[in-house]
Structures are given as structure tokens and as C-alpha cells.
Amino acid sequence: MAFFKKKSDDKKTEREKVEERREEVLARGRKFKYPLQYAKHKVVNLTILISALAVIAAGSIVYLMLYQFQSTDDLLFRITQVVPFSVAKIDDEKVLYSDYLLIYRSTITPIEKQGMVENGQNAEDMTDYYKRQALTSAEDYTYALKLARELNITVSDSEVNDAVEKHRKAGGVERSQETFVRVLQDNFGLSLSEYKRIIYLSLISEKVSEEIDQVAKSTMINVKEYLSEGKSLKEISEILGEKVVYEETSGLVDRMNVDGGRATVAMTLEKGQTSERFVSTSGDGIYFVTLLDKTESTVNYVSLHIPFTELNTRLEAVRKENKVEERIIIEEQKNDEKPSEN
Predict the structure, then answer these.
(1) How far is it, in rounded angstroms, from Cα 267 to Cα 274?
(2) What are the two backbone dihedrals, phi and then psi, of residue 246, each rounded to the nearest 5 degrees?
(3) For site-directed labelling of 199, which of 57, 229, 231, 326 has its Cα 20 to 30 A away?
């Protein structure tokens, strides 16, 4: 029998022999294939589990730091700019934690740099005061953003850039872009993009205020009619009473006076001339100014202010109806008094 088997093996072709050898190798490999696959799946599963636990742990730490300890440090601020955490809700609209921290940091940074915040109870009162102001402002801006969306009101990048350019040249000083960015960082702790976000929010609020305030619009029409009749701003203020605010500079002031843009507009007029209506740079209402006198660098004028009130009225109503939900607790200052910075 052995003799005939040997003879049969000799008849196999070279290809058959290679195929047979291949099957032998594969058969031996199968002994290790499934244990190795099991070990590989186990490593992958463990990696996923550890990664998930790490994410949960990091998320828990961030959550505690933001909502329990109310940290305002730079790292958490950067995280909120990437992850849209909410700090509150106003009329079912989420208030971004990043906007709240942006407003707070831009306010507290110059105070800290001037050494006005010291250790002790007064420091805690001061930080709580500015946190409360920042949170309220963030809520107000968010409500304005909601109204803007409903009214199809937008602010373009060019409008934001124009406003930034005006600020860059404020005070009659032509600062370079690099210098301006450094001033923002050193004085307010803001990057240029963060500053643009603040400008964007203020412009949205300004446009919404003007659009929804029918009383201010009606008053503006009345002022224009009285001006066409030759009445002065003072005479108009006496007719309209509490609807407007009349102001005098009582002398020459710097052409770059911080007054909502009134001095800048007055410098473009001739003596006795009254300007067209314009919205103040602070967005608090509509102004008319009449030039009394000016030099190359100073100006004397009177103004009539038509305040925007409708947006504040709506905000007050929203708060009275308990449509504001805050996720952090900030103690209210007694009598809403600003703590001493001395």
C-alpha cells in the first residue's frame, strides 16, 4: 500500500503541491486567528470606554466650573466660544455663556488693571455687581437678536468694520491696526474678533430699538415739522415736554467729546444750522444738534434727544412675566447700588 501511495504522490503536479502546502499553513494560522481577533476587539472596546469616561469627566469638570463655581478664567472662556453653552434663557431664547463672559471680562479687566479690585468682601461685591450687569446685558442683547430675526433686521460685516474703524480713530488719533489690537488686548482683554462681537450686538440692539419704537418715530416727525416752521430746539423741547431731552454744552468742548457723536456731527455744521436726525453711537436714541460756535478743535452746540424706550419696556414686561431663566445664581446688589471701587 505504501508503495502505491508513494507513486500517487509523485503524480501530483507542482501547482497541486503548492496548493496543498498553502492549505497546511492556513490551517495552522486558524488556530491563532480567533483569539487574536477577540484580543483586538477587547482593546478597541476598552479604548472607546476610556475615551468616553474621559469626555464625561472633562465635561463634568467644565460644567461644575461654569455653573457651580462660575469661573471666568481664560480657558473656560475659550471653551464656551467653541461649545455653545447657555447661561440663561429669555423668552425661550438661549443666552450664550460666551456672550456673558465676553461682556463681563471686557468690563472687569480695565478695573483690575487699574488696581481697583482688592482682596476682601468689597472685591466679591464688585465682581458680583459686574457679573450681574453682564448677565443682564447678555439677556437684553439676546432678546434684541430674537426680535431682529423676527423683523428681518441684519447687521453686515461692513457695518461692523465701519464702526470699528470709527473707534480706531476716536479722539482724533490715527492708530494703526496693530496698535489698536494691542490697546484692546491690554486695556480690555479682548481680541479684535471679540471686540467685533460686542459691536455687532450693540448695532443689532440699536437697529431693533429704532425699528420697534413707534413713539420715537412719531416724535421725530413732530420735531422735523417744528424745525420746518423755524422753531429752535429749545422751543420744540418746551412743546414736546417729557418726550424729548434738551441739553446745552454751556461752552466749547473738544470736537471728539464723548457724547454719542453729537460733537462730531456739530463740527460738520455752519453756525445756527441744525443737523438731520441721527442715532447716537451709544444707540440710546435719536438726536438733533444745532451748532452755536466752533473752532478748529472745539465746538459749542445744543441738542435734542428723543430716547428709545420701547425695547426697555418690552424687556421689563418679559421679566415681569417670569420669562427669564438663569442657570447661574448671582446675588442682586442691594438697591442696585454700584460698590465702591476705591
Answers:
(1) 11
(2) -100, 135
(3) 326
Residue 340 DSSP one-character state: P
Tens digits of per-residue pLDDT, 206-218? 999 999 999 999 9
For residue 228, pLDDT beyond 70: yes
Q: What is the structure's pLDDT at 242?
A: 94
Which pLDDT score, from 0 to 100, does residue 335 have? 47
Rounded to an integer, what distance in angstroms lies between the CA atom of residue 342 and that of residue 325? Answer: 34
CA dihedral 93, 98, 103, 109 (to 10 degrees): 160
Average pLDDT over residues 136-161: 97
Pairing of strands 298-307, 285-294: antiparallel
Residue 172, phi then psi, degrees to nearest 5 = 75, 10
Q: What phi and psi values does residue 280 have, to the nearest 5 degrees? A: -65, 155
Higher pLDDT, 56 or 121: 56
H or E element, residue 175: none
* pLDDT tens by residue, 159-177: 999 999 988 876 666 778 8
Neighbours of 245 (CB within 10 A): 14
Under DSSP, the state recorded for 339 is: P
Q: Out of 1.10.3470, 2.40.128, 1.20.58, 1.10.4030, select the CATH number for domain 84-212.
A: 1.10.4030
To 10 degrees, what angle do helices 157-168 and 192-212 make? 110
What cell numbers appear for 46 in the block? 476598552
Type of residue found at 280: S
Q: What Å distances lie between residue 23 and 28, 33, 36, CA to CA?
A: 9, 15, 20
Q: What is the rounded average pLDDT for all residues in the chain?
A: 86
